[in-house]
Amino acid sequence: MSVHGGNPSIKVTFWIPGYPSGTTTTNLADLSPNLQFLLRADTIFKGESSNSNYPNIVPPLVPFNRMMPGAEELYLGVRWDRGKLKRDDESMAISKELLARVGKPDATSAEMRALRGNFQCGRCTSALPVSWDRLVHHFGREEAQWKLSQLIKEADPELHLVYNRTHSLDPENNQPFAHFLTPEESADRMLQVSTYDMPLMRCLGCVDVGIDSQYLDLHGDFDIDSPILEHLREVHNVSSPIPGFHYREWEWDVTDSDPSDGDVDDESDSEDEIEM
Ligand SMILES: [Zn+2]
Ligand SMILES: [Zn+2]
Prior knowledge:
The protein is of the alpha+beta class.
């Protein structure tokens, strides 16, 4: 990893459960082994809709004065169900590998969160700065898509599918996996694109074989590539991607049950496919 602006050192203070109120420590070893495990940056759970660390896996407490009158049940009626969470082994492995590479194998999720959205993927030139969690998620997703593409190719050797592996963390790939930007560099990069529309796109090369890929499309007068175009170029070797043919706008809950339906939808078709 390349580090600009110095390697930041973060001190996190934790409350110690079971001690008189207000007792804190900055030494993780003062906490119980279970709590230490729960607080680790590489302890990640798979939820119904997202993958996350503690405390994000627990619904946020909404203060009484912020609740909408009459809608209290929305906040109070849902009990947290830990049965809906599973250990996310794939994300944990990626997180461990990335933490080892930055020399923080025992970091807590709070420590990595304190570094904020200043991480830029080193494997995509089009990447916008994101938080550590999002970076781990990004690598997990890219690797999962590549692994799926290999399974699809194995199952159907006749299929002509180019799917280059761009986010490998194998030791032989010594390209930096991320750049740590200064807050000013991150803000500059975000500011460049903030006034533009950034629609979410699906790669039709991926959709056609059953891979659910999503990338932003960026247009504008800046030096950042468009993520969907970079994906098509780097992963599928499509040198001049054509909108509508190689990619199209992503829609919520589009049913992909019929993979033979590879046409580019007109509005009425796509509305029929939306599951409400
Ligand atoms: Zn990337
Ligand atoms: Zn694709």
